[in-house]
Amino acid sequence: MNQFLFHNNDKSFNLPIIQKLINTYKQWQSFLPNFPQPVRQTIVHKIDVYLTDVIENIYKAAHTTIKENKNNYLNNASNSLDLLKFFLFIIWETKILDNNKFALLSENIHWIGKMLGNWIKSLDKNNKG
User: Fold this and answer.
1) CA nearest neighbour of 64 among 74, 77, 78
2) Rounded CA gap, 80 and 21, in Å?
3) pLDDT tens across 68-111, in order?
4) Is the Cβ–Cβ distance between 25 and 51 less than 8 Å?
């Protein structure tokens, strides 16, 4: 089965924030084999959960037409993104994640945060005006 057909009609795949999230997740997954087994089951797993939570909430926000739901999804994504950054910082501080990998992930997460923040601001502006 052609995998392209699976998401061919899903316009959310064209959103820059979705593309950045997909690329960040691929990058994160490429780092997983390098982590020691004990941390893979603890903090690394937690980071994976927060990253997938951001992806899930952004995807849901892109697919709902109800503004209140969209706001809730985006705020949930923002909260998960903040926790993701916090736990990434911890594994960098404890030398579980090296400087280069931390820099790569941080740059992507920074841009995801900017895009998410702009999306939230544009909804707030539309709700007030």
Assistant:
1) 74
2) 13
3) 999 999 999 999 999 999 999 999 999 999 999 999 999 999 99
4) yes
- Provide the residue type at 58 as one letter: I
Helix axes 99-128, 43-63, angle to 10 degrees: 30
129 or 14: whose pLDDT is higher? 14
Residue 126: predicted pLDDT: 76
Q: How far apart are CA 1 and CA 14, in angstroms?
A: 22
116: domain range?
40-128
| Total domains present in the chain | 1
Q: What CATH number is associated with residue 66? A: 1.20.1440.60
For residues 54 and 36, what is the distance between their CA atoms, to the nearest angstrom? 25
Q: How many CB atoms lie within 10 A of CB 21?
A: 24
pTM value is 0.89
Report which DSSP code applies to 98. Answer: -
